[in-house]
Amino acid sequence: MPVSALGTSTELHLLASLVLAALLGAFVGIDRSMAGKHAGMRTYALVSLGSCLFTLLSTLAAYQLAAFANVNPLQIAASVIIGIGFIGTGLAALPKLGSGEHSVEITTASGVWVVAAIGMACAYGFYVLAIATTVLSLVIFSFFAHIEHWIVTGWGPAKPGRKKAQK
Q1: What is the DSSP letter of 72?
Q2: Dihedral class, residue 125 (left if φ above 0, else alpha if ψ from -120 to 50, else beta)
Q3: HSE-up of 166 (CA within 13 Å, CB side)?
Q4: 125-164 per-residue burial string, b: 16 or more CB within 10 A, e: under 16
Q5: Is 97 a domain residue?
């Protein structure tokens, strides 16, 4: 079905999905930018936007190709997850910014994966879930980092140069 056949309200709904996906991805990415990570606001916004568009396209293609047996364009959405896995692998292998040393950026890669899901949720119209996931992601990136630091410094194994907290 050509875009013009969708109708203005449908086109506006699709546009709103894309805008919301990009904005929510950017919100999560701001935290990563402030933490000095490789993938920041723009990367997260683009991943969320791209996954939203792929999901919208697969959904629209499903309607167009419904008459054909054995054709499943919804596999496009499933392939987004595989593609994000490759991006995550690349992020995990990059050297730390400014230091030249390699570190495993699993949290950043996981965040990119979640932002892809946020984009897909926007594409399917699950806006409350997308917004809630964005808020939860920000809580995990910021608040959980403080809790994790408190736990590790209080009860974690002693490392050179770090004193264990007195009990």
Answers
A1: -
A2: left
A3: 0
A4: beeeebbebbeebeebbeeeeeeeeeeeeeeeeeeeeeee
A5: yes
E-assigned strand segments in the chain: none
State phi, psi for 94 to the nearest 5 degrees. Answer: -70, 150
Provide the sign of the torsion angle of the four alpha carbons 138, 143, 147, 152, taken in this order.
positive
Nearest C-alpha neighbor of 72 from the set 60, 62, 83, 63: 62
Residue 20 inside a domain? The answer is yes
pLDDT digits (tens, 9 = 90+) for 43-94: 888 888 878 887 887 787 777 777 777 777 677 777 777 887 777 777 767 6
pTM above 0.70, yes or no: no
CB 29 within 8 A of CB 43: yes
Which of 127, 99, 159, 122 lies closest to 45 in space, CA to CA?
122
Q: Which domain holds residue 135?
A: 3-139
